[in-house]
Amino acid sequence: MTALLVAENVSKRFSPRITLGDRIAGALGAKVDRRAVHAVSEVSLGVPQGRTLGLVGESGCGKSTLGRMLAGILPPSEGRVTLRGEAPMQGRHKVTTRIQTVFQDPYASLNPRLRIGETIAEGPVAHGLVTREGAPAMVAEWLARVGLDPAFATRFPHQFSGGQRQRVAIARALAMQPDVLVCDEPVASLDVSIQAQILNLFLDLRQALGLTCLFISHDLSVVRHVSDRVAIMYLGRIVESGEAARVYAAPRHPYTQGLLASVPKLVLDSNTGLDFRPIAGELPSPLSPPPGCAFHPRCPRATEVCRVERPPLTPREDGTLVACHHA
Ligand code: SF4
What we know:
Layout: E1 3-14, H1 20-27, E2 37-48, E3 52-56, H2 63-70, E4 78-83, E5 99-102, H3 106-109, H4 116-126, H5 135-145, H6 162-174, E6 180-184, H7 192-209, E7 212-217, H8 220-226, E8 229-234, E9 237-243, H9 244-249, H10 254-261, H11 304-308, E10 314-315, E11 321-322
Parallel strand pairs: 3-7, 3-8, 5-6, 6-7
Antiparallel strand pairs: 1-2, 1-4, 8-9, 9-11, 10-11
The structure holds iron/sulfur cluster (SF4).
């Protein structure tokens, strides 16, 4: 299947800024860390048309940075991102309109001084997708599609609950008629019952509109619910990817296996009282990634080769891609 949005060998490094605090610390003789952060390293992946790719990993693994590069918000340090074969970046600080993003915190992403009708209409009017005269009807239609009363168009963001604000953010993104929707932890800040409502809305809209989506989350259960394909990320690299049903049914990489075993189950183990096994240790700092396989300090199957040689992401017979010497 042809991928609509493609990342080819994409990396992102953040060079340290010299802050006033650094200058003061330096003047006082303290050592200041000036190493660059390798947030994303040599990632290649594609989001096929009409499908949803789930990008999963722990906080700090680089998935949001990768999502921002794919959305055209952040330029890669190396490699390239293409949408239908073209670079979506129109300039260092310009964001393409063909890729829209729904962020984790809907309150922070909505202008508190704009009525939400204006928030939804301003992009489509500015880009000629609708006339000023046609904007009220368009806003009413999108509010209804995301399950809100069209009369809410005159309200301000602070007059909505968190779930309602996320519905507004989805309406604003989809009113731009994007080729690709990037959802970056869209339900992470919501209560569990509201999460389910927003996920079901997302699924309904995806089916009705044939959306192509990148869905980023630290929550495996959430990603399982919405994704056709998944990519598992660890310390800036993809360690396993493939059809979601296959990866969830038979995870091959020890990190994917650990993530799945870390999800608390409703049925408890009769011996321990627990039926989940959290992955040992913590995500290492991207300032000093471990040599070899970056997961080796936490991996129960690590051997000597894992400590010195980084395993490449290689295709397996079941169609998945896995980066592990022993899987
Ligand atoms: S390469 Fe080695 S350390 Fe890395 S995941 Fe595989 S078994 Fe574990």
